[in-house]
Amino acid sequence: xxxxTTVSKxxxxxxxxRTQVVFGLDLAVSLLASLxxxxxxxxxxxxxxxxxxxxxxxxxCSLAASAISFRFYRVYRAIxxxxxxxxxxxxxxxxxxKGLLLWVGMLAFSSFTAWSGLLWGMLLIDFLFTMCALTxxxxxxxxxxDMVRSRSHAERSIRRVLVYGIGDKSASVIxxxxxxxxxxxxxxxxxxxxxxxxxxxxxxxxxxxxxxxxRYVAEKADIDGVLFPYVADARSEQDRLINxxxxxxxxxxxxxxxxxxxxxxxxxxxxRKIKIEDLLGRPEIKISMDEIIANFSGKVxxxxxxxxxxxxxxxxxxxxxxxxxxxxxxxxxxxLHNIRLELEDTFPELDFVPVIGDVRSIERLDFVFRKYxxxxxxxxxxxxxVPLMEENPCEAVRVNVCGSRQVAxxxxxxxxxxxxxxSTDKAVNPTNIMGCTKRLAEIYVQSLGLAIERGxxxxxxxxxxxxxxxxxxxxxxxIPRFREQIEHGGPITxxxxxxxxxxxxxxxxxRLVMEAATFSTGTQIFVFDMGESVKISTLAERMINLAGxxxxxxxxxxxTGLRPGEKLYEEVLATKENTIPTQHSRIFVAKVRxxxxxxASGVMTELNTLAERVDIPDMVILMKKxxxxxxxxxxxxxxxxxxxxxxxxxx
Length: 651
Description:
Layout: H1 4-11, H2 19-44, H3 52-73, H4 85-107, H5 119-157, E1 159-164, H6 168-176, E2 183-191, E3 199-200, E4 203-208, H7 211-220, E5 225-228, H8 231-236, H9 241-248, E6 251-254, H10 258-263, E7 272-273, H11 276-279, H12 289-296, E8 300-304, H13 309-318, E9 325-330, H14 333-346, E10 352-356, H15 362-372, E11 376-379, H16 386-391, H17 393-413, E12 418-422, H18 433-453, E13 462-467, E14 470-472, H19 478-487, E15 492-494, E16 500-501, E17 503-505, H20 506-519, E18 524-528, E19 534-535, H21 536-546, E20 557-559, E21 579-581, E22 587-590, H22 597-613, H23 616-626
Parallel strand pairs: 1-2, 1-5, 2-4, 5-6, 8-9, 8-11, 9-10, 11-12, 12-13, 13-18, 14-17, 15-20
Antiparallel strand pairs: 3-4, 6-7, 16-19, 18-22, 21-22
Helix pairs in contact: 1-5, 2-3, 2-5, 3-4, 4-5, 7-9, 12-20, 13-20, 15-17, 17-18, 17-22, 18-22, 18-23, 19-21, 22-23
């Protein structure tokens, strides 16, 4: 396909014109100016008879004089688009030189004697004509160059894409991209030859069966990328078309979901590159957003850990629900400042309050609850990194256990309608400090809620706990880490060849949290169907491929060994044996052992005391006694799992 970019490349007008071309053009313009002089003489002075010999002499001398003078002054070697007044002066001298040489040449022809009285006048007009014509040509060349260059740059900035599929959404992409300054639809592409030769919306339908087909189509149609209208399409083609595109050196794109478009995350609100998050997991879990909105609209909502990955996304979604006021509670100054700026820009009508505070400070929590009187609290504040918490167990207990207890107690004290606590799959049969602290927080919150339901404790707050696995792209998670390693040329570090994890997207996780909170009828722990687990090594390979690189050749994968407290496989959250189904096919209620509130409260108090004293051995022993399924893995705390040696009887 021939376009302006191709033309400019062939003519090289975006760089320069050959000096021979400029020289020839100058000679032609000069000759035409001299011909114009003859025409004027014949029109103004009709009494002068035409003399073919004199005419030819005039034109021949003009051509010769121009060639000699232009070559002497080298006016054709100047880069025209950078011409200055100095170049115009040189052009004037060259034109004057042409006139002088033309005068000398004409005097040598006896056939011109009849015009001898007109010679000086003709030479003056010829000078003016030639000078004006050469100047106008150069101005025209500069204007043409600028036009070609701007069009050429515009063409180069527009990516020509093929849309995957021939369905309604595939066809609708044309109208969405009609005014795009970034992308232009050049046709459609499908698997198999059934639609070969057909047209859709006036554009050709191409087919592919292997990598060679994709390379051929890319070259034939001058294609820069393939655009997928659905995430599901990209997932289904990740091992076929996306790989073929990588081999052919063309990009893969996707049209964003409605949540991304409203938040302005996609390029031009039309298209973005395919990310690893698009290719992982399962079909997105559908949520009844109308019921969720009705449940939170018009209420004061508080989110702890509001600047974190989950907390900030909860805030973004709650901001669209018509809440009366949104209280953002976090101890991280810069991230909280960033989410504040984002909400101010994206939701200018939202009444929200950013509060710097720590869940370990009972006084700060009391101030926030007393001043703003939240009706619903989402508790997302927690320490979450397994190796770091294994090295700092006392702080893990103070934040994840004692902090959660203090938030729950304040919810009861200030008559909060519902507290929703964000937990993790690592709380199931924990093998590390972090997972055990989250299980302990669950134990306290559940025991408090059940005590309220049974009338054993005062209050009206309902407590809901939600468990889910790893969240794609959360702060400090594996995907941002791998991206950073790829950008630095590798290697990518994976702890074990067989390590597997469950994943879900941040928006999906937050919607599930709110959905569970909406139809909860009491104190319950909800778990989500996370789909199939993913090998982390496979994840690393896919990310390398999406970056257009090759595993082993461009980026190496190194295996570093399991870290302290790390599991090889995460627990499956939702099974028939350990859950009860709900009205939502992907949300379940976990079957867990209930704890007595008085006993749980006493344990939490003792744990807090031990954590403040930094009495790690006694604290870990108490954690394992309270959560007997807590068995440490690859950790220094494994010694507390062994039975104490038998002591010799006293003599």
